[in-house]
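A quick aside before the break. I want you to see a complete sequence-to-structure record at least once, exactly as it would be stored in a machine-readable document. Don't worry about memorizing anything.
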Amino acid sequence: MDYTSAITELLYAYSAYFIVFAVGLLTTFIYTPKLIKKATDRGYIVKDMYKKGKPNVPNLGGLSILVGVMTSLIVAQFLVEHTVSHNLLVFYFMVFSYALFGLMDDLLDVGRKMKIYVPFFLSLPILLLTDNNLPMWLGIADTDMGLLYLIIAPMYIMVVSNLVNMHSGFNGLSCGLSYIVLVFTVIKVAMGEHPENIMYILPVFGSILAFLYFETYPARIFWANIGSLMVGAAVGGFIVLNHLELFGIIIMIPHIINFLMYVVWKIKKIGEVKFGGLREDGTLIVPNPLTFKWLFPYYYRLTEHQTMWIMYAITMFFGMIALIIVP
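That is the input. The structure line, written in tokens, reads:
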């Protein structure tokens, strides 16, 4: 065996991974301040509801992530083999379709019903990249799902993207939670049989990290639906691509709890209340405990930033649980 060539090939692969990650990170980091100014000048702003005076904050920050991902993806085409580069384009065709749908929702408000069924069809390209076998779950042998998987795979991505979109509302919350989920998923993939599959997520992985610097408390820009739906599709697609469906369910238990709370909210017919308020000492006033982000500040005097860190900690806890119990 030629160990020199093997080591050289391995170093090249890791170098390519690092470059793809770094290009996405640097592009988003450089472009986001420009987007902040342009969005502000053109009136794409929203109120930051949990700050004194409710200052205006530019919106549509997901465009910055999109620019970083596209630049990173272009570079990746020159660094990875043809089969991988082709599959990357298929994967990101799906992700970019979600981004376009999210932008439409930001600008035109497509409505809740369309967010349920349209993303299912946008997820169909994932079927070109995966087989129809579900992995071994808790000792149960691999299962050939046949045509049923044609429904399960895109539906899984649709659900994940909507869960990411719903679990938001505080500075850095949705974006930060998505990054935590990706960190643990990347670790799981790197420990598995196909560590090379982390290439699929590196353009998003770098771009989100850079954007999180600008959206975390106190946010200078929000990523809006274009960001949450795009990144949600990338998270869901990466999970399905690597047959980590059970892992994804466990690590996203906080997101699932948040959705179930919303279901209870609708059953009780409490009515639409999107935002809470702020006390003089900066702690949150929330109308009820039926959204996961409102649960702790409903019972304790917490600031927005403190609540964000609690949500981060809970998701990290489930990430560690998923790493431990999922084979």
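Two observations worth writing down. The chain has twelve helices and six strands. Residues 18-246 form one domain. We'll return to this after the break.
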